[in-house]
């Protein structure tokens, strides 16, 4: 009878070791899953912050003045009030015929200034900041700009 009790104890110990290993694996996977969910949420927050900065810059009434002050060789930087971690760089890409305008215009009377806007994040979150590039086409009187 004592021999059977020893075998039973041995089997119970083996079962406890297996169950403990499975529990440890489940807990580890749960922690990794929660960490991944947290990183995904932070990445979505970064994306929303970047899109909010884009909306703020595009709705700024002084954007036209900033575009008109650009020269062919210089670039400029804008600040975003709602999201101070976003840096916006403006670079003039040239002037010419308005490609995206549906309005009719006289030849060489109205031209467009093309500006590249680079949005980037400079913050200290756990996930890498995002970047986005947008193009702006500003119509202007060609005779006035020459």
Task: Write up what this structure looks like.
The mean pLDDT is 78. A hairpin with a 6-residue loop joins strand 1 and strand 2. It is built from three helices and four strands, in the order ααββββα. The protein starts with a helix and ends with a helix. The protein has a four-stranded antiparallel beta sheet. It has one domain. With 146 residues, it is of the alpha+beta class. The longest helix has 57 residues. Helix content is 47%, strand content 27%.
Topology:
Elements: H1 2-58, H2 63-69, E1 75-79, E2 86-96, E3 110-121, E4 131-141, H3 142-145
Antiparallel strand pairs: 1-2, 2-3, 3-4
Keywords:
alpha+beta
Distance between the termini: 108 Å
What is the overall shape?
Answer: rod-shaped
* Mean pLDDT across all amino acids: 78
How helix-rich are the residues, as a percent range? 40-55%
Helices and strands, in order, run as: HHEEEEH
Strand content: 25-35%
Provide a quick synopsis of the model.
This protein has 146 residues and is α+β, with helices and mostly antiparallel strands. It has helices spanning 2-58, 63-69, 142-145, and strands at residues 75-79, 86-96, 110-121, 131-141.
